[in-house]
Amino acid sequence: MNMLVEIVASLLLVAGGIFAFIGSLGMAHLKDFYMRLHGPTKATTLGIGCMLMASMLYFWHRHGVPDIQEMLITLFLFITAPVSAHLLAKTGLHMQLQRADKTRGEPLELRQEEVGDKPVPHPEKGHG
Amino acid sequence: MIKSRPWLPTPVLSLLLLVVWLLLTRSIAPGQILLGSFLAIMIPLLTHRFWDSRPRINKPGLLLRFILRLLGDIIIANFEVAYLIINPFRKMRPHFIEYPLMLEDRFTITLLASTISLTPGTVSANLRLDGKSLLIHALDVGDPDALVAQIRQRYEQPLKEIYEC
Questions:
Q1: Is B118 in the A-facing interface, judged by CB distances under 8 Å?
Q2: Size of interface A-B (CB pairs under 8 A)
Q3: Predicted ipTM?
C-alpha cells in the first residue's frame, strides 16, 4: 500500500512537471503574442492540478485524514487564470501587437486602417 | 434557501466565505468560527455595492454536470495543446473568431468567457462594449463555424439553461 501510494504520487508529480514544462516551452517558442498566451494559461493548469493531486494523495496517506486544502488552490487558480489571460489578451489587442501572418480572421480591434496614433474608436459606442 | 437581509445581502456567499476561511485556517475552533463569521458578514457588506446582481441558479444538478464535463474537457484539451506545442512538424492554424453571444446577463457572460479561456486552444480576448459578441483567439482551428457551434452547444446552452430561463 505504502509503495503503491508513493508510486502513484511520483507519477503524478512527474506528469505535472512535464505539463508545466510544456506550457513554459510553448511560451518560449510559439510565434506571436496571442499564441504564446495559450501555453502558460492552459498546459500549466493541468500541470499544477497533477501536482496538487499528488500532494493531496501523499498527505492523506501520511496523516490518515483527507486534506482538502489543496482544492482551495485549484479553486483560486481556476478563478484567476482566465481573468489574467483575458486581461493580457485585451492589452495585446489594445497595443495592436503583431500577430503571425498565418492567423486568419480579421478582428475589428486589429484592422490596419484604424491603426493610428490616436486610440481606436469603438464603432458602436464611439470610444475606445 | 436563507433570505437576504440588510445585514446579510448574500447568504450563500457568506456561507461560502466562512467555509473557505475554516478550510484555510484548518481548524473548527470556536474562535476561528467567530472570526470567520465576522469576515463572512463584513466582506459582502463592504463590497456588495460594487457587484452586479447575480442570477439565481435554476438547475443545480445541471450545474454539477456542467462542471464535471468542463473538468473532463480541460484534461483532454490540455493533452491536445501539449501535443501541439511539442510536435515541431504540425502546422498550427491560429484564428481570431467572433463569437455571437446568446447570453444576455453579464455574470453568465463572464462565466462563459472564463470557460472558454480555461478550455485549452481558445482564449477569450475581448468582449465588445455592446455585450453582443466575444472575440476568441484559437490556437489551431480548421473550421471556425464548427468551433462556434461546439462552444454554443457544449457550454453556452447549458449555462443559459442553468441561469437564464
A1: yes
A2: 129
A3: 0.72
